[in-house]
Amino acid sequence: MAQAGVKGSELPIRGPADSGQGASTERSEPLPIRWGVLSLPAVLGLLFAFGLPIALLTANSLFRHAGPGRVAPTVTLDNYVAFLTDPFFLRILLDTFVLGFMVVSICAILGYPVAYFLARTRSRCRGMMIFLVVAPLLVSAVIRNLGWVPLLGTNGFVNWLLLLLGLVDRPVALVNNFVGVVIGTSHAVMPFMILMLMTVIQRINPEIEEAAVNLGASQWQNFWQIVFPLSIPGLLGGYLIVFTITISSFTTPAMLGGNRVLIMSTFISQQVRFVLNYAFGATCAVILMAVAIALTVVAVRQSERRG
Amino acid sequence: MKRFLLATLGLMALSWADPAGAQQVTLRVASYGGLFTESQTKYGASVFSKRTGIKIEWVDGNPEDHLAKLIASRGRAAPFDVVYFEQSNQIKAIEAGLVLKIDPKIVTNLEHLYDVAKNSQGYGPAMLFWSVGIAYNAKALNDNGIPEPTSWADLWNPKFERRLALPDISQGTVTDFITATAKLMGGDERNADAAFDKIAQLKPLYFFTSSSDLRNKFLAGDVWITVWNNGRAWGMTDEGFPMKFIYPKEGGYGKLSTIDVVASTKHPREAQMFVNHILDPLTQLGQANEIPNGPTNKLLAPVLAAYPELAKKFPASPDDLKKLNQTDVEVINANYPKWVDKWNRTVKK
Questions:
Q1: CATH class, range B130-254+327-346
Q2: Which of A61, A264, B161, B288 is least surrounded by CB atoms within 10 angstroms?
Q3: At CB < 8 A and 24+ separation, what contacts does B273-276 make?
Q4: Do A258 and B207 touch (CB under 8 A)?
């Protein structure tokens, strides 16, 4: 997650306003070596805090399950074969990505107008508005989800409203299922998408838009032919962060999924905590990580090609 | 500066050598959380701390989580010193060498326990008898013209769609529900395959992992009926909620909660003193009065005989337990990984 975040911010976010040249001269200057030395503690810390546990996890996945929380010391690929040859497990992986793409789409569609407004507004309240956007991140996931339950429940506010407006004739299941997980997760990760898009849109010179309009472009053309293409790096950055957080999230699927939503995180938790099959849990975790890394690489390549 | 450093070092050395640190023992006890832990504080921990000066810190969670933590902490410091288990968890913990045998010289209440409550190998005894049955909001059912359930099969009434809550596959009570369903289908815990497709026909609101959360959903009117334990169900009845707890005509399920001392504890003596206190008649009676679970101390038999209104809320004796079904816990443990897989493939989808 953290790595994706760093990469996201390194995406070549360059609007025409930057004139391109400033950025390239900055890059051509080689950094003094002592700055590299200064990053050593962080690199060592990451190796210890991330590298080592991931190595141990991967090691666990290569052994055979031998009783609760134990593995037998025979190296085998059986766990991987078991996962990759069973359509049921592959379905769990697919559902995880479906969740990721749904959340990314919702965040992009709902977040874009907000990001555009925040990037362009000159209101004195802009700081306050940005704070409101970030506010969901200040609340713990547990509290945030507990807030959703009375809103989305059978007798909750949303169902009350839907019934009142006559849009439905009986309460709709909005929580304790996949829908609830999508709603809760989208809410949680929306700030990342908005901030990412806002930063990029801010760098698009408003004069370009004005020029387009002056030359007779409709608002529609202005958006789709000028603003949107220039904001794609922000969308890609937002996608990276939102997608990786979503496919690895556990609290929200566990709390709003009613224990019937089986995605990789809830499945891994079940294998490790209740079935006590560390080997298979580790295998699932490694597979999820590998696919997430692959998708990240694709997204970064894409944005580099555009840059 | 040098003097300051020396003084600091000296203080540190003193604090290491200070025997007072050894006197002030804090026991961490893994309990079930919520109202149960509250009642354990009231009748267990507070009196115990006053008597002995030993502090109690609760670690709340489901017994399955306690077991997972113990297993994960193998070879390292104990995450807690005493743990409340269900029988099935205790068996796994004993097999993995994670709990200690109990010394009857410290746990003197052991001799007053019913035989069925004592562990045959000398590990932690049962501290509570309880049971699994059907709990329902009688008012909600009557208001909606639904007859009150008398059989496990009544859970399949289509009117309970999204008003029914079922235990998640991670919960101990789910094994009783699967067994009960298997019996409806002509099987039992040894032959439960047909149960999963049958359970998959149900349309529950959700699968619960927390009794406190389920209680809230009953209070909010979201859930009308569930498969629950007697203690939490009767607890709501006692609060004035229109909750009824019944054993279906095919029978409810008798259960035992155990109390165990963690093998890697630094305070085995103090931990066993606490175990003894929890098995004390007064502690058990207080507990039974607050959240109705059956005491395992037979000294309480005359008290319970004098208060049938209290005793009817739980299995109050080995005879009461015998009237209920009991699953073969060894078979359940052996089948559990397979059951989880079946549950994932049929029920969760």
A1: alpha beta
A2: B161
A3: B273/B48, B273/B52, B273/B54, B273/B106, B274/B27, B274/B29, B274/B44, B274/B48, B274/B54, B274/B56, B274/B82, B275/B82, B275/B102, B275/B107, B275/B124, B276/B106, B276/B107, B276/B108, B276/B109, B276/B110
A4: yes
CATH 3.40.190.10, chain B: domain bounds:
2-129+255-323, 130-254+327-346
The answer to whether the beta carbons of residues B96 and A69 sit under 8 Å apart is yes
Q: Which residues of B touch A147 (CB under 8 A)?
A: none
Kindly report, residue by residue over B200-219, the tens digit of the pLDDT.
Answer: 999 999 999 999 999 999 99
Give rounded-to-5 percent helix, strand, coil for chain B.
50, 20, 30
CATH fold group of domain A76-306: MetI-like fold (1.10.3720)
Q: For A153-212, what is each residue's pLDDT tens digit?
A: 888 899 999 999 999 998 899 999 999 999 999 999 999 999 999 999 999 999 998 999
CB contacts, 8 Å: A272 with chain B: 68
> Which residues in chain B touch residue A273, judged by CB atoms under 8 angstroms apart?
64-65, 68, 170
**What distance in Å separates residue B182's CA from the closest CA in chain A?**
21
Provide CATH code, domain B2-129+255-323.
Answer: 3.40.190.10
pLDDT digits (tens, 9 = 90+) for A235-256: 999 999 999 999 999 999 999 9
A100 contacts chain B (CB < 8 A): no
ipTM of predicted assembly, 2 dp? 0.88
Q: For residue B71, give the nearest of A69, A88, A259 by CB distance.
A: A69
Nearest beta carbon to residue A68 from set B71, B162, B349 = B71
User: Over chain A, what is the mean pLDDT?
Assistant: 88
Distance CA A22, CA B214 (A): 60
Q: For residue B34, which of B236, B246, B312, B276 has the smallest C-alpha distance?
A: B236
pTM: 0.88
Cα B3 from chain centre:
56
Asked if the C-beta of B76 comes within 8 angstroms of chain A's C-beta atoms, the answer is no
Beta-strand (E) ranges in B192-301? 206-208, 225-229, 243-246, 253-261, 294-295
In chain A, where the domains are located: 19-61, 76-306
